[in-house]
Design brief:
Elements (H helix, E strand, L loop, with lengths): L14 H32 L11 E3 L13 E6 L3 E3 L6 E3 L13 E3 H13 L4
Antiparallel strand pairs: 1-2, 2-4, 3-5
């Protein structure tokens, strides 16, 4: 009679199961390695975005401000004192794969205009 199969774990496990698990593990390790190499080569080829752009009425909220950011990193801005964030306008930019920052419209407006608008709206009975 043939010898019994050698278990691949401390407990008795069927040989086909051992090979299946081994195959899945090998596949996972291989795909993880390919992913890691792709990310490394991507960073070597693409680079970074540099410092986020300077805006006239806002500053980056990030306390760990850097001179360079990798693709995929986002920076959130906050309005300067005396300005408010216009509802519906984005205050976040993202470093894109082409080493450029995503576009960002002015999203801060002087509080004076908001107060004037509210005063007129209340005075005219619109609010």
């Amino acid at each position: 009679p043939p010898p019994p199969p050698t278990p691949c774990f401390p407990v008795q496990v069927a040989t086909s199961l051992c090979h299946g698990i081994s195959s899945m593990l090998t596949s996972w390790i291989f795909s993880s390695l390919i992913y890691a190499l792709t990310e490394i080569s991507y960073l070597l080829i693409i680079g970074d975005c540099g410092a986020p752009p300077t805006l006239k009425n806002a500053v980056p909220l990030d306390k760990d401000y850097k001179d360079s950011y990798l693709p995929g990193h986002s920076v959130t801005y906050t309005c300067l004192s005396g300005f408010y964030n216009i509802q519906g306008k984005l205050d976040v930019i993202t470093c894109l794969r082409d080493s450029q920052w995503s576009p960002l419209e002015d999203f801060c407006e002087r509080k004076f205009y908001f107060l004037l608008y509210m005063f007129l709206a209340i005075s005219l009975g619109m609010y």
